[in-house]
Amino acid sequence: MSVTNLLDIRDLQVHFMTEAGVARAVDGVDLSIAAGETLAVVGESGCGKSVTSRAIMGLIQPPGWIEGGEILFAGRKGPVDLSRLPPNGRQINAIRGTEITMIFQEPMTALNPVLKIGAQIMEPLLLHEKISKAEAKERAIASLAAVGIASPRQRFEEYPHNLSGGMRQRAMIAMALVCNPSLLIADEPTTALDVTIQAQVLDLMKDLRRDFAGAIMFITHDLGVVAAMADHVVVMYRGKIVESATVHALYRHPLHPYTQGLLRSVPSITGRGAKRLATIEGSVPRPTERIRGCAFAPRCPHATPICRQEVPALAEVEGHHRAACFLHHTVVEERAHAA
Is the pLDDT of residue 337 over 60? Predict the structure, then answer.
């Protein structure tokens, strides 16, 4: 088994059985995360971002299943294909929560309401490491302090409902980091928070990005927060990756019309005067729909007949900048003429 990065996902397909038929939630995804790298996965709701992350964690349960592909992880005990491990087996349980951890969108549903915060942070330590309860407690308190929670010894003894939304999210981050994972997945970590607390948690995530030795997979629908968070970005649409690039390349020269639309919808703090935000007309097609051609074509202002007949491959355009669009060459040519 060859793994060149910390994580290599190859042609991942995740399906769900629904009343309307088989939903192809993830439809042939390829992505890699190098050790120490932060990768942002961007797209609207329903594009397959969270399902991809749950496949990595081994959290796909019936009526869902991994239809095909590989999730190759360079684990501490050697490389392993996570897609082949039983969801509740001993091997995935030894990896999940220690080598790969996750910060979920809503901490109030992710945290157990009847257990104290400290007990929940200690649990993975006691489960996976041969340490005493006293040592686990001190490490849990240190983890709470590391994420900026004041009076960590006091908070250690409190229940989730005693904490504010922002403090609960910090406690979730402390739990995710306490075992020093190789890969941290942050799935929309600020979505359920008000804007002030969002800013505080994002600042904390930026600090983590600087100090955390492992890799981070940051999932979001908001390209506005990606620039300060990531090294590379992949843009997902209806279960597929439509663009992949470094942050600098993506913001400087977005090649896919969907990425361009997402960037136009980000509010500017430098513009003068009131200006209506751009929107992308329509919505993401349901994963049960059978669409001929490019899935974005019905919403794309530049779509041509070939876009409605054939599916564009994710191809390298410039350097390591890849796009799945028949029109990306037009963007490159326009830039060349402008130069």
Answer: no
Longest dimension (CA), the chain: 67
Give this prediction's pTM: 0.91
* Half-sphere CA count of 185, side-chain side, radius 13 A: 23
Residue 29 within a domain: yes
Q: For residues 291 and 287, give the distance between their C-alpha atoms in angstroms, rounded to a whole number.
A: 10
**Residue 65 covered by a domain:** yes
Q: What is the DSSP-derived secondary structure letter of residue 248?
A: H
Q: 9 in a domain, yes or no?
A: yes
What order of strands is seen across the sheet that includes strand 78-81? 21-33, 7-18, 64-75, 78-81
Q: Write the CATH number for 244.
A: 3.40.50.300
Other C-beta atoms lying within 10 Å of the C-beta of residue 239:
27
- Element at 316 (helix H, strand E): strand 315-318
Q: Has residue 160 been placed in a domain?
A: no
Domain with 9 in it? 1-89+221-267+278-339
